[in-house]
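Structure, all two chains, one model.
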Amino acid sequence: MNINRRKILSLLGASPALLAGSAQAAAHKKKNESEAAAPVDINTIKVEGLNPRGMPPSVQLAPMAPRLSTLDGKTIYLVSDGFPGADHFLDQIAIWFKKNMPSVTTVYRLKAGAFADDDPKLWAEIKAKGNGVIMAIGH
Amino acid sequence: MVTIAFKDLAKSTAAKRGMPNLRICFTPHPVWGKTDAEMYAYLEGDDPVTGKPLMKEVIGALTDPLVPDEEKSGTITPSVGPATFVDTQDNLQKYYMNNGMTDFMSIVIPTKEKVDAMLKGTSHDPEEVIGELTPARGSFPAWKFTVKQVAINAVMAGAQPEYLPIILAISASGLPSLSSSTNSFAVAAVINGPIRDKLNMNYGIGAMGPFSDVNASIGRAWTMLSRNLGNCGLPGETYMGTQGNVINFNNLIMPENEKDSPWTPFHVQKGFKPEENVVSVFFGYGIAQGQGGKGSAVKPVPQFDQGLLYNFTPLTSIFGALAVLDPLVAKDLVELGYDTKEKLYDWLQKNATLTVADAKTMLFTGGFSLRGPQGKDLKDDDLIPRWPNKEMINAVVVGGQTNPYYQVGNLSYARSVSIDKWA
């Protein structure tokens, strides 16, 4: 059976405009509900993340020492920092110099302490008696 | 001179110490373990980085005149990048990961709101400098860090504000979870005090497994903050662990099961009061299972002391031993006469021995030097202590009493830090 809503409203004393209004409100409500239900793509939103890094220390630049004009007749210290194999490797360097540059004097030393420990006594000796250093770090 | 395996490390370390232009020559890797002839062949060959004849390069390093960059002096302040990063969540996840700021798993993006919420977990000023972290003390410059920077890392790890005091205490210990060594070290933290129950930390079934967000996020935060606040964990530069260690993902976080333990809690052994909240950190190689091993089938009381000795066999003496015992094992040890942990440590230290012959083959023999006066008259079948003193042996009670099992870590106790101080 077809229902004539306009006639019914009119019989009730309600204006047809009300019908149009209620229909419009219903359509508007339905649109709002459907928009509210639609998920937002979170990846369209930009966010601000903080930098998690700490504070590195400042670095004091250390200029390199002037170079030797020649190794002939010079004393080169061969210094091991204690890493396994460094001593034997430096032995081979000493052999190489003896074979190829016999005028170079090599002096072997094991740096004191652990790998990264300072050895001011050794540096003082090298400054006083040596001309250069080859240091075997590892490994 | 450095082997090529350490090229990046050598250059970055020299730069961080003010010598970005230090003249470094490289050899093939390794040098260690090579014969004299093989090492001499390195000298006769080329530098594997430059491709130039090695010894010619060495001589040039000593004699070629300096260029202007090598003569520079002054101060450089390294940059760690901008204070914030703005992008979509997906892009930020990639950005943090690709720039070495994560553990290669998704993080909680540390927005200002989340960090502010995290900071409510402590009464300390966000700008307070807590301390320093470095991948290896003495070898790398130490970085300083603040309460806020720890909080940022705690957010990233998925921790809650109420966990922050524990994370701050761990950071204050100065022990990073990622050491630079080729050894692939691991770390552990024992938690004691009422905070364990307050936060519902897991010290029962599965305590050392993925069964508690508290345990897991605190451990994860330790690695996160080690990377970001100490510049640790950069492979080839500040991390040289040749195989890596799975423990580093979120470390060994062990709240002690104080209520089921027959012994004094670990922190009380270290001089704290029972009601204090304390984290005790350990450092070493890792941990291995001991269940079902020697002594475990003996009746009526399993000989877990013998079992521990047996499980000490593969441990190196460079680190101590940490016995992680289910409460059932601890109770059985009490029945065997070890009514205190100290008695157990004493017995274990005296009986954990190895032959001189075995010690001679080991790279690390800890505090016992075979070359010293104490070693000069020893014969190969003589026994020497694995550890020089009982202070290198520790025990903690953890577990849910489903079975009398235990694990043994080659881990040394480093220090204990108050958690309450950071509340």
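The first strand of chain B starts at residue 2 and ends at 3.
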